[in-house]
Amino acid sequence: YFRVVVLEHTKKTKGEFLELLGSYDPHKKALQAQKERIEYWISKGAQISPTVNNLLVNYKYWDKSKMASWKPKSKSKTKEAGGIKPAPAKKLTSESGEILNAEARSETPATESQSEAPSAEAVTANI
């Protein structure tokens, strides 16, 4: 159950309001609103929220276009961060179950991408 209210922008949405303009019951999908009072407050400079605007459009209270009431998640943030997290590094062990020391790990050949890419220290030094 939601209320359609008029309130000052400095007030909390669940607090004090100037006027109750209607209500919406999502379970019954029923909207009760005072169209004349809504138009009055808009004429006085009140701004309607996108969600209330879309409800009024859906229930044919007026013939305005719908507004975007939510922002889609940005995919660029996940691409910049590398998307998928790399798997945790596994410990190298010998056949007998002993953990290999650093010298044994350094004997493994490095991949081409690791040897060609400059280190972070070299990049910052060039700037």
TrEMBL record:
One of its GO terms (cellular component) is small ribosomal subunit. InterPro entries: Ribosomal_bS16, Ribosomal_bS16_dom_sf. Keywords: Ribonucleoprotein, Ribosomal protein. GO terms for biological process: translation. Residues 68-127 are annotated as: Disordered. It comes from the Bacteria. NCBIfam families: S16. This is 30S ribosomal protein S16. It comes from Candidatus Yanofskybacteria bacterium RIFCSPHIGHO2_02_FULL_46_19.
